[in-house]
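Form 7-S
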Amino acid sequence: MDAEELRGRIPSNEIVFTASRSSGPGGQNINKVNTKVELRFNINKSEVLTANEKLLLFERLKKKINTDGDLIVVSQSERTQLMNKKKAEEKFFKLIIKALAKNPERIATTPSKASNKKRLEKKKKRSDIKKLRKDYGMPEEEL
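Output:
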């Protein structure tokens, strides 16, 4: 699934944007203009996601979801509300795509004979270096 397919799937009436004063760049503009954008998407009320997809989102994005089931994405890095809205939307779709992506199954492998031999040679070499550091039977000076 890609961002364009997901954009076509999720209707705009399920995504809610709110703006507030930002702590980001903008100088004195911060005190006058609401540039911080917060995107909210209620997973429970979504009509386009399947039950399995909802479970995956709750499991993988639990730190970004509040108790009401709202997925919250915030953007305040830009100086304009419009740019922050676009950034928040991009972040949202990337999050959803990443959360819904299937993880490939890991295939267990065994080390090759050559890699085993190389590992053992390295261990032997390191052991020899450490043996050279030891003080072997040097007679102590008598007082």
